[in-house]
Batch of 2 targets.
Target 1
Amino acid sequence: METRLEPSRISARHMTRASLVDPEGAVIDDGLAAWFPGPASYTGEDILELYLHGGRAVVEDAMDSLLSAGGVRLAEPGEFTRRAFEAGKLDLTQAEGIADLIDAETRAQREQAYRQLSGHLSGKFSEWRRILLEALALVEVAVDFPDEEEAPGYAHGDVRQRIGHLHTELTRALDDGALGEKVRDGFRIAIIGAPNAGKSSLLNRLAGRDAAIVTDRPGTTRDVVEVRLDLGGHLVWLQDTAGLRESEDVIEAEGMRRARAAAESADLRLFVLDGSRPAADGAASEAVSPRPGDLVVLNKADLVPPPDVSRETLRVSALTGEGMDTLVKRLMVLIPERTADQPPPLITRRRHRERLAEAREHLAEAGAILERGGFAELAAEEIRLAIRALSQLLGSIGVEEVLGEVFSRFCIGK
Ligand SMILES: Nc1nc2c(ncn2[C@@H]2O[C@H](COP(=O)(O)OP(=O)(O)O)[C@@H](O)[C@H]2O)c(=O)[nH]1
Ligand SMILES: [Mg+2]
């Protein structure tokens, strides 16, 4: 079946079955086409989408035929979304949401990306910007009519109040425990403990594969071994580290330095004790003792009869898999997750955090100027700078390098 794809013969936003033929008239594939006339399309322009069988030869021949037709070229990475952004179909935070949705590997990442794509950040940032534009207008009245004692708003402390209120909201958004960034980048769980406690075995057990080398020789693990896991819908980086003990070995000492660094920067420390030698471990140096807040597990439960160990400690066996379900459940509870009564975090990238912090700084300054009855011009300038930071967040002003950064990370053709 051959249908010439003339826009007049395809109804908009409906699938039309068609054959794709090469310039010589030979059929490449039988597929579907959808026609999206602008402006009601992803980028706002006229768009034709072809749905072909995805084999490599099909795609290659289809591309060759289309490219040889002239006036056609391959899209740059993220070009479609960039055009959508430039046409005002999305703001920058929504474009980031699309990139994150494409990259999402876990439930939490998908939910967060979708929220961002649907305008969760845009709505808030635009609202804040609107409030500031109003405040700016009120301050400018005071600049233009300095003698008007009763200039609306300024004299009544209305502006100060608005700014103070917004400052509080920004602070709340910034003090979010970096939850959004953690959902996006992953939570770090460091497995630490004495040599031979079974840290590497535990990592392999949790990862479901032999990611780390396991031997009965203490000091086997030297470097930090990381595996990515989906734990209850969250991206988790599980880190296996060198066992902590006194050692003369230079390489092992460096391994321990890295282990300590990983433990310090981790969101959670999983402290592994050798259950078959709890006394020995307990008597070890301070470096090998769990700290408050660590999740302590007693490994090698298969070697110890149950009554010998305290009930509070998690008993597991990396060898037999005993207790692993309970451990995974405990880890899932300990991964900070948004609770129902808590609004989802706004910040999901460092870029957001930096611009919001900048906006807050300017607000604080504007507030201080107004408080001490300083020049309204100076306060207005600070408010303008805060508005500028919010506009940069939304991508509505001069952020060429940020755009390049955001869109270049997209896959080709999105
Ligand atoms: N019986 C038993 N042996 C284990 C268990 N976990 C690890 N081992 C053994 O303990 C030794 C050290 O394990 P490894 O994972 O390399 O410990 P690490 O030094 O803490 O990384 C190896 O011989 C493992 O086979 C366990 O749950 N039960
Ligand atoms: Mg090890």
Target 2
Amino acid sequence: MSNSTVDDVIQARMSARAFTSEAPSRELIQHILQVASRAPSGTNTQPWKVYVLEGNILAELCDKVCDAYEAISNNPELADQYKEAYSYYPEKWFSPYIDRRRENGWSLYGLLGIEKGEKEKMFLQHQRNFRFFDAPVGLFFTIHRDLGTGSILDYGMFLQNIMVSAQSHGLASCPQAAWNKFSKIILPAIGATSEEMLVCGMALGYADQADKVNTFQTPRAKVDEFTSWLK
Ligand SMILES: Cc1cc2nc3c(=O)[nH]c(=O)nc-3n(C[C@H](O)[C@H](O)[C@H](O)COP(=O)(O)O)c2cc1C
């Protein structure tokens, strides 16, 4: 099988969960977004809208969401105040997806030395989402609420393009649905209108190669497990 550059970059991409403080330039971020916008979309609707956060705005929003997350952890009844605008995950999990989800979670925690029942450590690790894992750039993605489900499909292609282009420029990323619950805090803070819905967040920056969390490698099912060949 030939070794194309695109294949290599796609295979090298992984979700980074620790970043250095080195900030990518605005020109580079702009370039990546422009390239990513070559993603196809039904009738070329281009449903994406991007917010790039850095510096104080980023830090202040992270503080707010970290506080909200901590408040929920201290008083679970507060969780009802925060709702995702769309269901990213199923309400009721089932095999094989639940098994993969569990394997993913426990492998990551295992790597970090977090054992079952260590709730405080799990809380702190999950809370790192709300600091964009210390990435210098945090991205939020919104979509017009009234667009169809298909536009979310288009959005996924745009997001993957961002991550692949970023990878090709030596940057790392982590797509994050963890933020979605807190759209009530995020949308007004970034200046989004009431017509917009939060799709997800994404951490962007240079991976901290010294942090073991970035050695986490996720498995994939073999082609024959998800493909039927018909002739
Ligand atoms: C839309 C989307 C949302 C995700 N949300 C989170 C998140 O909130 N926090 C996190 O640590 N990882 C998140 N991930 C990363 C997945 O856990 C990761 O993609 C998966 O385990 C495969 O690993 P890899 O990206 O390193 O290949 C998300 C991935 C996607 C595509």
